[in-house]
Amino acid sequence: MNVLWVFAHPEPRSLNGALRDHGTATLRRHGHRVRHSDLYAMRWNPVAGPGDVAHDPGEPLRLGPATEHARATGALAPDIRAEHAKLDWADTLILQFPLWWHGMPAILKGWFDRVFVQGYAFGVHDQQGRARRYGDGGLAGHRALVVTTAGARATGLGPRGVHGDAEDVLFPLLHGTLFYSGMDVLPPLVITGADRAGPAERADAAARLDDRLTALPAAAPIPYRPEHGGGYDDDLVLRADLAPGRTDLAVHRT
């Protein structure tokens, strides 16, 4: 595989940094190729705006169409073009970050805001003019694995935990971003109790990561329902005969 590992943690000596280095070595030991986007080390600018598209300040900015046009004409900011080149090279994306306030750090959200632009990751259409999204899209053919750490204990991020089930907490990223743009999304690896991890817990986390990386090429993705698979009506609402009476996020799985 060609793996792009996007890392969003400010401290390379952290548990996250150790897992990133360990995981990279594991992938390379198995013959895979790895490139990195270490967002804090890169001093990544997370703010999408007119500088991304060489926008004329005298005109109103419509960021979606502007980024699509800039990409088509080669006018996107160089740092965005560099990330597109990495994604084009990769067939697998690993996203690693600490879970902060039930979401990703702002710098990683800003990576998505600036890199997953219209006409590239979304806003693409098939030959019938239908939007390609939720199981199809500009990044179809890529696999994605989220690796995240949390200070919470495992039970607190379980099905009845006070924080919410981990996959529900990550649903906006897993389903609303990665699956939306066409990727095959693998179940996330969530390392809990990260703030209190001692040598034994760190070794266990590294072993769990090894297991996931070893299985990465053939692991089954989360079975989300594709938009154009017949499960949704014209208003994009799940058919009444599928998961009847339920409204939880798991209804979007087959």
Q: Could you characterize what this model shows?
A:
Helix 1 packs parallel to helix 7 (199-215). The protein has helices at 15-29, 63-73, 78-89, 106-115, 166-169, 171-179, 199-215, and strands at 2-7, 33-38, 92-98, 143-149, 184-185, 189-191. The chain contains seven helices and six strands, in the order E-H-E-H-H-E-H-E-H-H-E-E-H. The model has no long low-confidence stretch (mean pLDDT 96). Strand 1 (2-7), helix 1 and strand 2 form a beta-alpha-beta unit. The protein has 254 residues and is an alpha/beta fold.
Flag low-confidence runs.
none
Distance between the termini: 27 Å
Q: Describe the main β-sheet briefly.
A: 6 strands, parallel
How many β-strand stretches? 6
The secondary-structure element order is EHEHHEHEHHEEH
Based on CA inertia axes, which overall geometry fits? globular
Write the layout of secondary structure elements.
Layout: E1 2-7, H1 15-29, E2 33-38, H2 63-73, H3 78-89, E3 92-98, H4 106-115, E4 143-149, H5 166-169, H6 171-179, E5 184-185, E6 189-191, H7 199-215
Parallel strand pairs: 1-2, 1-3, 3-4, 4-5, 4-6
Helix pairs in contact: 1-7
